Amino acid sequence: MSTGTGAVAVVGPVGRQAAVVPSSPGRPTGPAAPASCARRDGALSWADARRGLPGLVGPEHVGGRAALATLVRSGALVVVRDEVTAAPAVAHLPVVRARAVAHLVPPRGVVGRASAAWVHAGGPAAVPLEVLVPTGTARPRARAGVVGHEAELRPEDVVTVAGVPVTTPARTALDVARTCTAPAVHRLLSALARAGVDLGAVLARLGDRPGGRGVRQARAVLAAHLADGADR
């Protein structure tokens, strides 16, 4: 539904206010998290995520799974991940993808690897969600749909997307090259390149990391990907 102001209204159940989301095709850097989305214990709840970015719609907001499936089939909503949907005008935005997984990110956790590539560049949703925690930090409690990994994380390796910590696009490309295998690794690297990541610069950055787990693989994967010219 158009609001006449360049926005799209997603209408929920009767008596519930419609959520209005901007329909600008640009890729925002991500609004600062409002007070309602403050990370009180380091984590964001599903309710917080919805308040932080209007337009995320789950089964409970439209009368159940069957109603949600009907709205998706009709084109009124687009699946972002699992049973999280959004209006077509905004479903492709990184801020929407980040908010769709905000409730799964544990304290001190950072969305990383293939999941971070999905946040930045889209494509098929990475399941389970991969979360990085700083080396030496206790891993988060096991949770369905989430896999935790310890990793060296520098401040410059992390960016906030709509209030959700995510590895930067460049660090994400490095981690994907280190940890993923073909053919997924080349699909993810191509998506990141289309989103603006300079893979040549990422390869050059490996000079700062002469050792470390997966660095040799990352160097070989990035060199082969660039030589193949898949992104040209």
Description of the molecule:
Helices cover 35% and strands 16% of the residues. The protein is built from 9 helices and 9 strands. The strands form 4 sheets. A 3-stranded mixed sheet has the order 5-6-7. A two-stranded antiparallel ribbon has the order 1-2. It has a two-stranded antiparallel ribbon with strand order 3-4. It is globular, with a radius of gyration of 18 Å. The model is unreliable at 1-44 (pLDDT under 50).
The average pLDDT score comes to 79
| Helix segment tally | 9
Radius of gyration over C-alpha positions, nearest whole angstrom: 18 Å
Shape designation: globular
Could you give a short account of the major beta sheet?
3 strands, mixed
Task: Give the low-confidence spans.
Answer: 1-44
- Helix/strand order: EEHHHEEHEHEEEEHHHH
Strand order, main sheet: write it out: 5-6-7
Structural class: alpha+beta
Total separate domains:
2
Tell me the strand percentage band. Answer: 15-25%
Helix content: 25-40%
Q: How many individual β-strands?
A: 9
Q: Compute the separation of the termini in Å.
A: 38 Å
Protein name: AbiEi antitoxin C-terminal domain-containing protein
Organism: Cellulomonas marina
